[in-house]
Specification:
The structure is a homodimer of 221-residue chains. Chain A is an alpha/beta fold and 221 residues long. Chain A folds into 2 domains: 168 residues, SPOUT methyltransferase, trefoil knot domain (Alpha/beta knot); 42 residues, no CATH class. In chain A, 35% of the residues lie in helices and 19% in strands. Chain A has 9 helices and 8 strands. Chain A has an 8-stranded mixed sheet, with helices on both faces. Chains A and B meet through helix 2, helix 3, helix 5, helix 7 and helix 9 of A and helix 2, helix 3, helix 5, helix 7 and helix 9 of B. Chains A, B: Methyltransferase involved in ribosomal biogenesis. Specifically catalyzes the N1-methylation of the pseudouridine corresponding to position 914 in M.jannaschii 16S rRNA.
């Protein structure tokens, strides 16, 4: 299963709010410049009111949760999975399967800030994570041009069927807190759109069930 | 499904290390006294070297991850689940199903510190979470005296069978980062001990699959 977390709400603090007190004090506290820290709704909420599309931005916790669910899964540990993070503003984060994502959120944030600063992590030796410019369309093309989407309005499948369908697919999940894909074509050109249950699930919940279904299908659980 | 996260690695900083620089500076930075903040391996590692059983302490992120997986699940949202946190040092944290756990880890830590300070959260109105003294044995007795355990050395069951077995059970999962239950009787007196896959899983991974299996069994996914 290749998981693509799309339009993920992770980015460095945009220039237009560098001088906002909520941002400046957070950066100073952490000994960094405002442009070097991740935008975080939990810390920078007062500064985000005027940001375009602000409700869908500043949620690195979504990426953290999904990476924890995926990287520590049996699917990934058995070499049957790979995850790519496509971000708002068109960056692609590649994560090698053996990458142990920090379980502590603050350590994860520091790792992501290093990644944005250097384009790779760790700074030396074999890179485990890499960041480069890239569009969602380009990534999906690179991954073979065929994908399925997990979406609240998708078709319901029995759990076992869903697992079989996802195990060998490129699976796109939205990495944003609210609303829908800005890239409408992701849904329109998908080979299939599946829902997981009858209610909207956040990204980590959807990925948890997709991975469990694929693992059950592969006989891992 | 009633989930009991047992011997969870969450506690306030113990008195013996209040004066350690790593603790004192963290408390000062957060405007709190050392005895009011959660012990956190990611922040207080230098202070924990001499702590008894230190390798199994100071991991509130484990409780956070499990609560996120459980509280935002379809199982819980449909009223088919309930979670209790039993902590190291014998506290019991009760969490009402409608409790929306903060997705941001730092906000979660603040909520837990309020809970330890006041015994409840939020401070006024209907409480959503409550903390009180209590043993694991007392809790399991209160919940009917019959339980199953998820454990790496448990019996493997097909995913569908596991779901059916867990859906209407009290399910105990270890809330500690390493090692095994200190309460050996938890395993010895359990009605059944199940494993999820052939490799050890961290608590959140085990709970993610247990919940997905129970949901599939209940026809929710």
């Amino acid at each position: 299963m290749i998981l693509v977390l799309a339009e993920s709400a992770i980015e460095l603090v945009p220039r237009e709010i560098w001088s906002h007190p909520a941002v400046a004090s957070d950066a100073r506290r952490r000994g960094k410049r405002p442009g070097e820290i991740l935008l975080d709704r939990a810390r920078h909420h007062p500064a985000m009111a005027g940001l375009e599309d602000g409700a869908r931005r500043g949620r690195p916790d979504i990426v953290h949760q999904v990476l924890l669910v995926f990287q520590y899964s049996l699917l990934n540990r058995r070499g049957l999975g790979r995850v790519y993070i496509h971000t708002r503003g068109d960056y692609i984060i590649q994560v090698k399967p053996q990458t142990r994502i920090p379980k502590n959120y603050n350590n994860f944030v520091s790792l992501m800030e290093q990644l944005y600063a250097l384009g790779r992590a760790p700074p030396h030796g074999d890179s485990l994570m890499e960041l480069h410019r890239g569009s969602l369309a380009g990534l999906l093309e690179q991954l073979g041009g065929r994908w399925v989407v997990l979406h609240e309005r998708g078709a319901r499948r029995r759990f076992a069927e869903l697992g079989a369908a996802l195990l060998n697919s490129v699976v796109v999940v939205g990495g944003f807190p609210h609303g829908d894909f800005s890239n409408r074509w992701v849904l329109e050109k998908a080979e299939a759109v599946y829902s997981v249950g009858d209610e909207p699930l956040d990204a980590a919940q959807a990925v948890c069930r997709a991975v469990a279904a694929a693992e059950a299908s592969a006989g891992l659980i």
